[in-house]
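ZP: hey, is the fe (ii) ion complex queued? I don't see it on the tracker
AM: it wasn't, my bad. submitting now with these inputs:
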Amino acid sequence: MKIKIVNNFFDKSDIDHICSLKLHKKIDDNGIAVYHNKISKSGEIKSELFDEDTIKSLHKKYHPIALNILEELSPKKKDLYEFTEFHLVETGKDFQFPIHDDIPNKLLSGVIYIKPEQNSGTNFFDTKKGDGKREIEWKVNKAVFFSREEKNTWHSYGGDGKSRRVTIVYNLMTNDIKKVFLAEKTNQFFGSFRAFINPYLFKYFKFTI
Ligand SMILES: [Fe+2]
């Protein structure tokens, strides 16, 4: 699988702004809080954390870069783009997310490490069981991008047992998963079933298929 790493992804003023945001959601050591922010191709915004001008300016500045990366990693998916997610994710020091391959709606999956100075990065694997682990090490303002493929782009992340971890999850998205499976040449029926069932399996049983 192809992984694209970009050091110093955000301009200093943007990362300073992100760091200054007040994170009001309470989390415990094993917990996660997601602040959802979205902007569509036509400019429609739904945002929990950023004000409208900020999300518009982030989108204007970084969208061409993200779209180029999508073209490099998965050219067939570029035309499926419909909206962008700019979520801020805060996780407790002991939080662990299990190995997964991402939902089909994500054309380009990105994470930008925000704070603190030291933590754990994103882990990639050859199999769902966790063989062939490679960690993309944590460094403030480092961005890690990949384009998901059904049962191939296995990855996980978690805290380092010492401090809370703050990232921006920057995804280029589509609603049309039928075209995603066509672009990937993977099985639409099984893939759609996994995408439907996995959130429930994770919520109630803490595993995914
Ligand atoms: Fe993921």
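AM: back. The chain has a mean pLDDT of 95.
ZP: great, adding it to the tracker
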